[in-house]
Amino acid sequence: MIEKNTSKAMLAPRDVIHVALSILRRSARRWPVVALATVIGLIAAFVLPKLMPPVFQSETLILYQETIQTENLLGAQQYAMESRRQIGMRLREMLLSRTNLEQIIKAHNLYPSTVSSRGMIDAVEEFRAKIDCRVRENETFRIVYQGEDPDVVYEVTKALSESLVEQNRQYRTEQAQATKQFLEAEQKRMAADLSQKEQKLAMFLADHPEFAQDAATSASAAGASVRAAARSSATVDTGLDALERQARRLRSQLASPDPPPASAFMGPSIDPKAAEAIAAAESALADARRDLQDKQSKYTQQHPDVVEAQNKVRAALARLNQAKAAARPASAPMTETPSSPEERREELKTQLARVEAAIAAAKRGQSAAVPEDNSGESNRVVTLETQWSSLNREVNETREQHEQIQTRLFRATMVATVEASGQASQMVVVDDAYKPKRPSRRGAKRTGAIAAFVVLMVGATIALGLGLLDDRVYEERDLKKLALGPIVHVVPSPVRKGKKYG
Question: Which residues make beta-bridge pairs with 428?
Fold first, then answer.
């Protein structure tokens, strides 16, 4: 009864350790199983990689170079170009893009089982894992591809290199053409805007020809810059100075042998001689602009030749405006306009008399007692000068913007021409892809190591299971399991040779 209760009692920690060691000793008696598993594992570690499909490898080396640097064509005032590192990373991403790899997979029928079972996305990922594209510091690209068929490996590596070269050429060409098309559209828009504002200025000169002399004398200075025109328009004075300038304009018209009539420009039906003058002025303006573009392509904006060419363009434009102002229609609008030069002179003398009276009144300081006619004349002159300055400023601003667009369009056209010819940036294949004659490697050593470890663990598990199933009697605990009856005495096992009792 006492032994029965004792056997059912919980085991002490020491007894648990004793049981575990007993199981290990029994499993150790099955050492042939572990030894056999070790031998099988070692054989698998060496044989299994050899039995796996061989891995062939091909590679190519591509050099990126710029035969004609676009920085020199665009000039130092343009935006910063891509760095060499940015170009390399961009080309690498373009090569490994899903769209590019899909085309190569379809062209060479790669990974058919993966495509049919899991789809094209997984096939692209598997393909990308077999590609090694490295960008080096010396602007070279090393492309390596691995596969099981040497012919396929060679063709795919060659296709990857050709794809990289073609994508770089197409990217640069499309970029240059897009820039050129955008600038062409902007140039047309600016040209239409400039033509509209020049037409307004010409109509103003037609209505007020006394301002034509100001346009001719200030053609080289008034349009030198937008800021100068803005400052001159902001400082237009009102009063005596404006009246004196108007008087000088009227005297200048009276001094001319045949003063032009003051009527609005009504349509295209003009005098043949005036039409010839306009055509000649337009031709001279076109020649001046071509000369300006040619010099801007060679020199900077501050070069004396460029400045002189800009002055010639402005002078030619002023002559064109004068020719348009002098181009009077055959039928004048229905206003009280003199029909003969003598009547025109009388009208100019009347206007001059009113202006001189207003000047005299202003000089005497009798502005409060100025007649309404003189005050109205002063206000009219100030309004005309303000309108003249505003129209000039708008034309000068639009003209400078148009010239800038033309300069950029000229440079963009050169870049597009160079890119289309393939002379700007080139990718040269330094080392062509080759057909591998023997595999670079077979199965990975890691695969063999995993196989050996699995076989060894299986052998150890079998040995442990046999130790647990062993029902032979080795110690007192095994006798108690047999339940043969009360244990009278236990004879210890003989001590091994060289072992002493403690």
Answer: 63
Q: In the chain, helix, strand, coil percent, each to 5?
A: 65, 5, 25
Whole-angstrom Cα distance, residue 270 to residue 435?
Answer: 79
Q: Are strands 425-431 and 131-135 parallel, antiparallel or unpaired?
A: unpaired
Return d(Cα 313, Cα 297) in angstroms, integer.
Answer: 16
CB atoms within 10 A of CB 202: 23
pLDDT in tens, 445-481: 667 777 778 888 888 888 888 777 777 766 667 666 6
pLDDT score recorded for residue 174: 76
More confident of the two residues 64 and 84: 64
> Regarding predicted confidence, which is higher, 382 or 259?
382
CB atoms within 10 A of CB 128: 14
Alpha helices, DSSP H, located in 327-371: 341-363
**Count of Cβ atoms closer than 10 Å to residue 69 Cβ:** 12
Non-local (6+) Cβ contacts of 495 within 8 A are 501
DSSP string, 382-448: HHHHHHHHHHHHHHHHHHHHHHHHHHHHHHHHHHHHHHHHT-SEEEEEEE-----SS-SB-S-HHHH
Under DSSP, the state recorded for 69 is: -
Which secondary-structure segment (H or E) carries 60? strand 56-66
**Can you tell me the distance from the alpha carbon of 449 to that of 454, in angstroms, rounded to the nearest whole number?**
9
Name the CA dihedral angle for 354, 357, 358, 362, rounded to a multiple of 10 degrees. 170
The pTM assigned to this predicted structure is 0.44
Among 404, 434, 452, which Cα is nearest to 144's? 434
The rounded Cα 74 to chain-centroid distance in angstroms is 16
* Strands in 56-174 per DSSP E: 56-66, 131-135, 140-147
